[in-house]
Design brief:
Layout (H helix, E strand, L loop, with lengths): L21 H9 L3 E4 L1 E9 L4 E6 L5 E3 L15 E4 L1
Antiparallel strand pairs: 1-2, 1-5, 2-3, 3-4
Amino acid sequence: MAIFAMNGPMNGFFEHDSTVTACRIKKAVMNGLRVYKTHKGYEVIYAPEIDEFLIKCHMNDRVIGLTWKDGVTLNAYPEEFFCES
């Protein structure tokens, strides 16, 4: 089960009976929601210059891809993601 919104409406991206997927995370980011992994130190961002979604560590500014090279398999457990508007 996913961790849910801390603040504000979820706009249907992560609902109690929904599975968190890379597609839903990407849509949430593109719709202006802030998506995090585990805590607010890790944020999902979109990097338009390389057309990729990344998980950025705010403590050291390092990034990893949101997904494996297949574009589907998340680089974290789905239940670790949450978002806020």
